[in-house]
Amino acid sequence: MNAATSTNSAPAERARIGGWQPFSACDWPGRLAAVVFLAGCPWRCGYCHNPGLLARQHGKPRWPQLRELLLRRRGLLDGVVFSGGEPLTDPALPALLAEVRAMGFATGLHSAGCHPERLRRVLPLLDWVGLDIKTLPGRYAALTGSGGSGARAFACLDLLLAHGSAFECRSTIHPALHDDATLLQLAGQLAQQGVRHYAWQLLRPGPQLPQPFAPIAEGWPQADVQQQVAALFEQFEVRSG
Fold first, then answer.
1. Reduced to 3 states, what is the DSSP secondary structure of residue 60?
2. Rg of the chain on CA atoms, in Å
3. Which of 18, 49, 99, 234 could potentially form a cystine with 39 if both were Cys, beta carbons 3.0 to 4.6 Å apart?
């Protein structure tokens, strides 16, 4: 039984879609993609960029309309990225990936690593994954509000490494969450495990974010810290958020 026909999957028409972006050059490095946002996430990170997509009921079953829009963009886009929320939460994700591939698009996924077994099932349907690695494993629960979340995220990393998938790891960083020692230790652990592509995304506080997420001072992280981390990876990038 393949990922698209798993008994734990649902028809694409039942996907809870919270929105979409028709063209993006930054959600899949080197590719022009549409981004489909699926509602629902089991974690409650205090700095969540899309808090309106945490609840499944905030998404709507509008795949038929979105399918027609994507069909019109064949030849204009390289692929479709499923983001969220946490897209692995949606039982319709395998069917969505299968349909997108049938249209001729490459398939990408943004995931925080909440559901290792669901990731295992859809890996054959994915061309690329952007995996959020938030912090060191032992510090995850305080950040996500979910016990065992660190083990699940790093289990997803193990799956990607074992499968040989094209992927990058990225960490959203802020001085209130990561000191220099944490950044260096996390980068060292990822490099030791075999990660080749890594990115830092600087947390840019918005009106929904409470203290202590103050604006990041210019020059953080320091240049020497960035240089030490860059030396560990084939590709390393600092993104402004």
1. strand
2. 18
3. 18
- What 3-state DSSP class applies to 45? coil
If asked whether residues 193 and 119 sit together in one domain, one would say: no
Residue recorded with tokens 């022009």? 32
Is the backbone peptide bond immediately before 40 cis, with ω within 30 degrees of 0? no
Q: Strand order in 167-173's β-sheet?
A: 17-24, 33-38, 79-84, 106-111, 128-132, 167-173, 197-202, 235-239
* 180-193 vs 149-163: helix crossing angle, rounded to 10: 40
How far apart are alpha carbons 191 and 158 in whole angstroms? 13
Instruction: Judge residue 218's burial from the number of C-beta atoms within 10 Å of its C-beta, 0-12 exposed, 13-18 middle, 19 or more buried.
Output: exposed
State how far the Cα of 92 lies from the Cα of 170, in Å rounded to an integer. Answer: 25
CATH number of the domain at 79, please: 3.20.20.70
CA distances from 70 to 78, 79, 101 (A): 11, 10, 11
Q: Are residues 15 and 132 in the same domain?
A: yes
On whether both 146 and 197 belong to a single domain, the answer is no
Last residue within a domain, chosen from 131, 165, 199: 165
Q: Cα(205)–Cα(184) distance, rounded to whole angstroms?
A: 23
Q: Which residue has the tokens 């990058």?
A: 168
Residue 200: CB atoms within 10 A of its CB come to: 23
pTM of the model: 0.93
Express each pLDDT in 192-219 by its tens digit.
Answer: 999 999 999 999 765 555 556 788 888 9
Q: What is the pLDDT of residue 229?
A: 98
